[in-house]
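Intended use. Records such as the CHAP domain containing protein entry shown here are meant for training and evaluating sequence-to-structure methods. They are not intended to support clinical decisions.
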Amino acid sequence: MLVAGKHHITRLTRTLQSRKSTVASALVAGAVATTALGVAAQAPAQAAVGAAAPITTLAESGKAAKSLAGGTGTVSSAHAAVYKAPAKKHGGKKAVTAGEVIEVAESQLGLTEDAKGESKFGKWYASTPHAKRTLQRDGGGSDPKVYKSAPWCAMFVTWVGEQVGTDELGADAYTVTHAKSFKDKGRWGTKPKPGAVVFFDWAGGKSIGGIDHVGLVAEVLDNGKIKTVEGNISNAVVSKVRTPDTIVGYGYPDYAAE
């Protein structure tokens, strides 16, 4: 009887241990399933955010060679400080002022391409989701690395907007569609304003389709002249004084009041 009792206790102990193991496995499986459901629930939301972001990039190899090329100029400053934008938000977006945008742009004055002919802004753009969408839109191939050494005036403007946390400056690598994005939103005109995105045609044309270059207005001067900050002029970020004869028009970001 004693031996039989011991056997019974041993079986009971093993049964309890087996049940504990089963329960533990079930708890682990439940935790994994819960985590998987959480990830699955987040994925559509993240995808929706990406789909909702206004992407208006364009940089087909042939088009970029013409429409993103800068003219000639000189470097007016040699500093390239790192700007840290304020954390204020307004309606889910940064309450960005024209002054903040100009400050960021001017912080890059004097920055040049590297020995490979690659720009900081092209490298940055190549790493963003904009790049793949641009290539798909324009049939420019499948490797975003092409932007590293591509003409980068529009990518510079896009980069400035990203640094202050706004999409109001547009998100493009091709000057023509960059300008069209402002016109499509009813934010296009011919009057210069500080912080406006300025578009040029070196041939003196006034058609958006002929735009060659883009920059930012830093200051409005007399007689229709403007002071600008532009990327990809003599392979650098420069400040220039421009006259109306080569200006096609301006895109007006929806800035917060100063």
